[in-house]
Structure formats: structure tokens, C-alpha cells
């Protein structure tokens, strides 16, 4: 059974450790286990309970009133809230619970409801990106395990791929071509997939090479398809200057090619070239392609 410290609960829920102690001691809403040295630890069940309590608390329920509710009543109130007021915070909390439970049905229901009420793009920008930021921090700090992280990111990937498929092939013979790829050491493709979706949505022909592509294969694809752009992403930490050297070789080899670089490590790029565009957010990409 996986257990969590009170600091883990704080990171997962956003509820301060001090508040968690009050809810536990004054209202008896949580029941931690204690070690021989009296150190608290919490089960998955207690974590889920905290996340559920926080949904109600963030929607104006007083904690003293929540304490009087049964588990069935808490569930009922949450379902009513999600049906009536599917706010971004509520959706993100529901996705977090789905991740902990590895509950694909709940995950699908929450995302599909949001898409029906808003749009796929709003889902990605308002829900998925903040949610992935949260679980990225949780994974790096060992609050969630790799299985949970892989479970949820694969479900998100399926959503993006389905949205790309719905767009269908680009039939415009005059459309500019973009080759999307990750270098041989990169496998975190969600950002690249969503950027590729945006390019396709805006009328570009996208050739998606995917994860962990050797540089030689990228250059063969460029030679064959003569794209106007290549799109890549850097998430993994690398030696200082490695990304600059990698991109410089591509830019020097193809004097008319434009390079779009996304991902958190793109912020470390110091290379200056008018044909290199660093994308810190999907809006940077949208602004760029609107002017093409």
C-alpha cells in the first residue's frame, strides 16, 4: 500500500499542511497512520478523501458543515457541483483522483464533459497543461509513481491523437510542410503532439516522426520532404550548450529551414538565429503561424 507524508498531501491537494492538521484534529476528517515515533502517514484512501473535501471547500462549503456529511452525501454534493459548475479547479481535482485510482472511465467522463461544454483547445490550455505541470512536479518529487504518471499521460495522448485524426489529411497542395520530431534522447511527446495538432488545424502539412529519432534520420526526412519548418521539443536536461550545437547543425545544413523549438529546456538556448523560434507557450506558435 502506498503511503504519503503530510507534505505529499500538501503538494497533491494544494491544502496547506497546517490546514490539514486542523481538519484532522478539530473535525476528525482524516485518520492518518502513525509510526512508533508518532510520524503521520496517509493512505491512498485518505488522500482521495482530502481531494474530495477540497473540492467542496473551494466551492464555498464550510468545513464544519462538510464534517457533518456522510461519505455518500459528500459524493452526491461533488457530483452535483461537477454537473452544474464544472470549473477548472474542480476538473483538475477530479483528474487527480482519476490518476490515483487509475480510473479510466472517470477520466474519460470528466474530459468529455469539459469538451462538450467548452472545446478541445480550452481543455488543453485550461485543464491538461496545468494538470500535467502538477503531475510533473509530483513525479519528480516521488509523490506519485511512474505507473500512475504513464497511465494518465497515455490517456491524454490518446485524446490528442484522436483530435488530430478528426482533422483528416491536409489536401492543400500549396500547404507548407512541417516535420515534427523528438531527438534520440527525448520521449516526452505530449507537448509536441499538441503543437503538431495546432499546426495541422491551421492548414500545415505535418509529418510526425515521433519520439527518439536519430539526427541522421531527421536530416534524411528533411532532404526528402523539403519542409518549410521543423518542430521539436526539449524536456530532458542536457549538457550545457548541447541543444545549441544540435540546432546549429540543422540550421547550418539547411539555409532556408525555420526551426520551432518548444519544451522547458528551450529556455536554456543561447543560439541566435533569425530562423530559430523558441516557443514558451502554444500561443507563441499560434501568433507565429498567423503571420505566415
TrEMBL record:
Ranges of residues in domain HTH merR-type: 3-72
Segments crossing the lipid bilayer: none
SMART domains, sorted: HTH_MERR
Keyword Disulfide bond on entry: no
Keywords, ordered alphabetically: DNA-binding, Repressor, Transcription, Transcription regulation
GO molecular function, one term: DNA-binding transcription factor activity
Domain of life: Bacteria
UniProt cross-references to Pfam families, sorted A to Z: B12-binding_2, MerR_1
Protein name: HTH-type transcriptional repressor CarH
Higher taxonomy: Bacteria, Pseudomonadati, Bacteroidota, Flavobacteriia, Flavobacteriales
Amino acid at each position: 500500500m502506498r503511503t504519503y507524508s503530510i507534505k505529499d498531501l500538501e503538494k497533491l491537494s494544494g491544502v496547506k499542511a497546517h490546514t490539514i492538521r486542523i481538519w484532522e484534529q478539530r473535525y476528525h476528517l482524516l485518520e492518518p497512520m502513525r509510526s512508533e515515533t508518532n510520524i503521520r502517514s496517509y493512505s491512498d484512501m485518505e488522500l482521495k478523501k482530502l481531494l474530495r473535501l477540497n473540492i467542496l471547500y473551494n466551492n464555498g462549503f464550510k468545513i464544519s458543515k462538510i464534517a457533518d456529511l456522510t461519505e455518500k452525501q459528500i459524493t452526491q454534493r461533488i457530483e452535483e457541483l461537477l454537473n452544474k459548475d464544472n470549473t477548472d479547479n474542480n476538473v483538475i481535482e477530479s483528474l487527480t483522483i482519476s490518476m490515483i485510482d487509475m480510473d479510466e472511465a472517470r477520466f474519460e467522463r470528466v474530459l468529455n464533459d469539459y469538451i462538450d461544454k467548452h472545446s478541445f483547445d480550452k481543455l488543453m490550455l485550461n485543464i491538461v497543461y496545468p494538470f500535467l505541470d502538477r503531475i510533473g512536479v509530483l513525479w519528480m518529487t516521488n509523490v506519485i509513481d511512474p505507473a500512475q504518471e504513464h497511465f494518465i499521460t497515455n490517456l491524454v495522448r490518446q485524446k490528442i491523437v484522436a483530435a488530430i485524426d478528426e482533422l483528416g489529411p491536409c489536401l492543400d497542395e500549396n500547404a507548407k510542410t512541417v516535420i515534427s520530431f523528438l531527438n534520440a534522447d527525448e520521449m516526452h511527446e505530449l507537448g509536441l503532439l499538441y503543437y503538431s495538432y495546432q499546426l495541422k488545424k491551421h492548414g500545415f502539412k505535418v509529418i510526425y516522426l515521433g519520439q527518439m529519432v536519430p539526427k541522421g534520420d531527421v536530416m534524411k526526412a528533411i532532404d526528402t520532404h523539403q519542409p518549410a519548418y521543423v518542430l521539436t521539443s526539449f524536456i530532458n536536461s542536457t549538457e550545457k550548450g548541447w541543444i545549441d550545437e544540435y540546432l546549429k547543425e540543422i540550421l547550418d545544413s539547411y539555409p532556408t529551414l525555420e526551426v520551432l523549438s518548444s519544451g522547458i529546456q528551450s529556455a536554456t538556448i543561447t543560439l541566435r538565429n533569425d530562423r530559430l523560434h523558441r516557443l514558451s507557450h502554444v500561443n507563441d506558435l499560434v501568433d507565429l503561424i498567423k503571420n505566415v
